[in-house]
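Could you help me review a protein record that somebody else here produced? My question to you is simply how this chain folds and whether the tokens agree. Thanks in advance; the entry in question is below:
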Amino acid sequence: MHILIIGGGGVVGQKLARSLAARGQLRGKAIRKITLADIVDPAMVEAPFDVECVACDISNPASVAATLGADVDVIYLLAAIVSAHAEEDFDAGLSINLMGTLNVLQRARELQTKPVVVFTSSIAVYGGEVPDPILDHSFLNPQTSYGAQKAMGELLVNDFSRKGYIDGRGFRLPTISVRPGKPNRAASSFMSSILREPLNGQEAICPVSDDFPHFYLSPRKCVENLIRGAEIEAAELGQNRCMMMPGKMWTIRQMIDAMTAVAGPEPAKLIRFEAQPAIQEIVKGWRFDLRPEKALKLGLSADESFEDNIRYYLEDDKPAA
């Protein structure tokens, strides 16, 4: 089993690689190699089998062809230009999120090996005039360029699977929190930084009010779901290969209260509320009442509580003092 993780330098890609290395097998077969690919060489992950780290620009078909060979059995397509970045730079979003996805799928088609492709979409594909609750068959109505590009990627995954070129499956990720590392250019980045920075003893700014609700999942649970998602048999997926990944909805206040319950009252004192209209304009179009029934039936799951999300960060990712 050779697994290619495109976006292997990111938080989720690195965690996925480490989890697969510890697991040693996928889809009932022993893993013999993982290739981590990103726009720059990803960090190495220790494993009892071969791990290769390569630079790959998915906007360049030649770079994709050099990275994706006929011996690859499973492709995790995680790479993306995130929401606020895609909104600011329309061409970059098109190049990576749409054309990059198409380039990977076209290369898989050329190989005629029908690899399993796990595509990470986003709940940003929902929005606008769609009635609540959002169900598995609610139509996609994105209100951002990022959401539109992810929705188009889903259609490509479905159609390439229907034609038999790939065995695709796509998962609309909730906002992943608490993410380690530094803030990125996602509009949702503050949803980790308002917790991560205070837990690390640093001040953080929250650009929305504390009654703002959103749909969340921890990095640990996201990785578990991505592994389960690769193992679902094609017959179980039905005619629509793309679905919501389970998560749960909490308000900013509930998240802060969860942090206080786990880590005490001091971190919450480091959060400052300061309105940021550009972020508010993006997030106001996101939808929140999501019912991921299909994924739950297929064995994916959400965190039991946001306290768990805080504990996982402290156990897995908090820098040593």
